[in-house]
UniProtKB/TrEMBL annotation:
<dbReference type="InterPro" id="IPR038765">
    <property type="entry name" value="Papain-like_cys_pep_sf"/>
</dbReference>
<feature type="domain" description="Transglutaminase-like">
    <location>
        <begin position="159"/>
        <end position="252"/>
    </location>
</feature>
<dbReference type="InterPro" id="IPR036985">
    <property type="entry name" value="Transglutaminase-like_sf"/>
</dbReference>
<dbReference type="Pfam" id="PF01841">
    <property type="entry name" value="Transglut_core"/>
</dbReference>
<keyword id="KW-0808">Transferase</keyword>
<dbReference type="InterPro" id="IPR013808">
    <property type="entry name" value="Transglutaminase_AS"/>
</dbReference>
<dbReference type="InterPro" id="IPR013783">
    <property type="entry name" value="Ig-like_fold"/>
</dbReference>
<protein>
    <submittedName>
        <fullName>TGM4 glutamyltransferase</fullName>
    </submittedName>
</protein>
<dbReference type="GO" id="GO:0003810">
    <property type="term" value="F:protein-glutamine gamma-glutamyltransferase activity"/>
</dbReference>
<dbReference type="InterPro" id="IPR050779">
    <property type="entry name" value="Transglutaminase"/>
</dbReference>
<dbReference type="InterPro" id="IPR014756">
    <property type="entry name" value="Ig_E-set"/>
</dbReference>
<dbReference type="InterPro" id="IPR002931">
    <property type="entry name" value="Transglutaminase-like"/>
</dbReference>
Length: 257
């Protein structure tokens, strides 16, 4: 009987496992194993001590995403489906597509940044194409999705962005991807969501002398609601006190570095 224990900071991804005994080489079925982050392992940077939280934020494959407006909040049921067929393969495909180095694949902060970029299709042909126009003739309306599974399966099969997503769809898919990779994850909603484009922490409105709005002077806006994700990890790259829930956002707004 042979037991193989991987290092808690090994790079996440697909491995070939060959066991050589004398002249014989044993290859397990498919010869491939998937190595993930492990929130049950105390030495892993995504370790989560609370069993109920692991059940909720890693194992739970269904949930609700809260949408609407500040005075009319309602829940959308969502099938995260992180254990469904081809979802793990789709996540591994995204990891390869991210071109993260093996060193970066050890770090859930780098992996979650890469996944938040790849869940939208802007500049990297990622999973979902955003559309806020109201015209969804050439794809599926964001309102019609009820889960991540069909989206990820379709993307993995075609390798082309799936049409269409808005913030809760991006957040639902990213939640699936992070839980599938072993990182505790949750969707977070905010209402009357201020979107500041000028880095001055205010929402600016410019008017002319007639009181008419001058939209060309500021792209700041307030959305009815917005949904992003929190992921759980230790931050060894930051000073003490920054461990725990970290915000990531896969809805394409402005590029970050």
């Amino acid at each position: 009987l042979l037991s193989v224990t991987s290092s808690p900071n090994a790079p996440v991804g697909k491995y070939n496992l060959h066991v050589k005994t004398g002249a014989n080489i044993y290859k397990p079925e498919n010869a491939v194993i998937y190595l993930l982050f492990n929130p049950w392992c105390e030495e892993d940077v995504v370790y989560m001590a609370n069993e109920a939280q692991k059940k909720e934020y890693v194992l739970n494959d269904t949930g609700y995403i809260y949408v609407g407006s500040a005075y009319n909040i309602y829940d959308r049921p969502w099938n995260f489906g992180q254990f469904e067929e081809f979802v793990l393969d789709a996540c591994m495909y995204l990891l390869d597509k991210s071109k993260l180095s093996l060193t970066d694949r050890r770090d859930p902060a780098n992996v979650s940044r890469a996944m938040s970029a790849l869940v939208n299709s802007n500049d990297d042909d990622g999973v979902l194409l955003g559309n806020w126009s109201g015209n969804y003739v050439s794809g599926t309306s964001p309102m019609d999705w009820i889960g991540s599974v069909t989206i990820l399966q379709k993307y993995y099969k075609t390798k082309k962005p799936v049409r269409y997503g808005q913030c809760w769809v991006f957040a639902g898919v990213l939640n699936t991807v992070m839980r599938c990779l072993g990182v505790p994850s949750r969707c977070v909603s905010t209402f009357d969501a201020a979107h500041d484009t000028e880095d001055n922490l205010t929402v600016d409105i410019y008017l002319n002398e007639k009181g008419e709005k001058l939209n060309s002077l500021s792209f700041d806006s307030v959305w009815n609601f917005h949904v992003w994700n929190d992921v759980w990890m230790k931050r060894k790259d930051l000073p003490n006190g920054f461990d725990g829930w970290q915000a990531i956002d896969s809805t394409p707004q402005e590029q970050s570095q």
